[in-house]
């Protein structure tokens, strides 16, 4: 075994040693985001995030709301960070604003500026990663007696201003929202006793009428208002508890005996500060803090329903409330956002019974609410901010250089391949003993060797550390990606082995075996997705390295999206619900989630399902029909790239309608391999192949020379080389240049392996051939190696020596697993 490892180290180092490329890290734009435009009422729910999510809510409502609200602990702990990140990811997929209700879990006096700085850092990260706009309700309902931070005016003001100062000095663009509760019944029954613990200074602040007592005659809002510069929006919590005026005060223990629709004009009376008060108020909350100070108002509201009680219907109760809210908006234009509690929870106001606040639990209710929102003509639906969809997340994983830099590598690779092709002709004549020994065998080891080389490139590319291997994979092998050869060679192998399968058991048995293999691939794909998700809950393992993808600034959008983090497991948390919602199950079953190094697996599953039917046509000499249909689908993709037959994750990176063209051609090439070899090795065939190889490489070199040395490459325009990459070589869509590159690489590589087989096999065959014969196995297990490397503590990904050691060790371990056939009975090969 030591001998094999020594040979591996030596051979791999010799095969890929080259100068190192250390590209400077791109720097994300740290400027403050542009203000978010608001052109109407922002409506959205406060979800029970433990059992619900934006996709489910939008599906039930039939519209995409502008905001989603979530309650988080402050100071931030690990759970709050995780919940926030998941909420921001889900909201960004709809371009929605996130309303944060930050609830202190320690005494206000213990909150520090460091806590505020940590919070602001997370704000800036979420905004930078997901373009999320935040409305921050810090310590909401601070005038209430039911919150641990309530009725402490001096400490609340200090804490609010400390957070506001840090947030306003930052670059997140977040808005600070001061949000007390509706004041009727203040200081509320539950304040009895606890007010005795307040300091004399706090009592003086709360005793606004200076009568020496804290009563309903005192101002329920003013003592808690911070410095005006600290407040960007104001908020007001105003729920309907269904108990009439006797239950006006939130937190008052008044029994709920029946479900009753709200009295007419109740919302208007509340906004006029006339409902539920025993002492008249000199001025309304709306006039004092919204209209009077030119601030927008965020109304937090909802109406409860207890299904265990008699009375009015749920529709009558909840529609009666929301219609009153909507009716007041024209007379209160500063109310620009409304959040509605969308949850089932216990309420003290209902005798600690569980009640339902939701508007979308039933189709009838959701339809009525949506119709009333639309009829109001005031609602601005999402997207409010940039939409970052799961499809964009998947597409972001294709990170390449653009323009001349990439074309230079493509041109250089084409030139080297052309030279190697010409030299192979000379070697074949002078050293015939080096040739590949048998062209008639069912298994072609040259194909296996190419597959082995390609799968090593895939492994090295996905384990993102600096080493000679990564330099070779990302730069020297610049003409094509490993994925293209991977798909083409897989088709060739399947086209070659199908006749033998038919010979063993007949065509139907061969088709059933192929479908069984496809089923196994699919189940393994689901298993890998689930395993990575499960591993993410293991302490001390950070699975975000493959469950999310951080934009390197080298994707389709260039530097503009550098540092943006994309979630590749949309709604995965919902799979833990009982029962899990259908939309999450559907995303799982259709492979709409999964680790980024694994996304091509879905393409193989779909192609494998089509494989028997395609071979049925090819065996009947209808290969031309297969290819004609394949090119028709390819043309459909080129003309309508937005057309997506499947929502699967792979389709954003490897569009099925385009990438199937590689697989179908591989099947035809594999089935007719001997005839094709005979034709191409005939004299006319050699001439045609030589003209293509030299002509294509010469064309690229000629354009490169014109661009580099400043002459016009007649008859071509002077700027053609600069436009060549964008017009012909995008990786996702497999444009003409990428397809020509693939023909060039497969032709030249096969020719070189044919005439110099014995020395190449002696040096690298021991490694490349077994890995190539188990390439699908290697691809599946390499995902876990990517995760393992990402969790190596203290790893410096830019260290040449660490990267070389990591790449060598991973390749050696995978090689040993293949040689020992580890889990071969479970994992497809």
TrEMBL record:
Transmembrane segments: 409-431, 452-471, 477-502, 522-541, 596-615, 622-640, 652-672, 684-705, 735-753, 765-788, 800-818
Pfam families: OpgC_C
Domain GH26: from-to ranges: 21-372
InterPro entries per the UniProt record, alphabetical: GH, GH26_dom, Glyco_hydro_26, TAT_signal, UCP028704_OpgC
Key word Membrane present: yes
Keyword Cell membrane on entry: no
Signal peptide residues on this chain, from the entry's feature table: 1-28
Keywords annotated in UniProt: Glycosidase, Hydrolase, Membrane, Signal, Transmembrane, Transmembrane helix
PANTHER family in alphabetical order: GH26 DOMAIN-CONTAINING PROTEIN-RELATED, MANNAN ENDO-1,4-BETA-MANNOSIDASE E-RELATED
Membership in a protein family: Belongs to the glycosyl hydrolase 26 family.
Name of this protein: OpgC domain-containing protein
Species, as recorded: Microbacterium plantarum
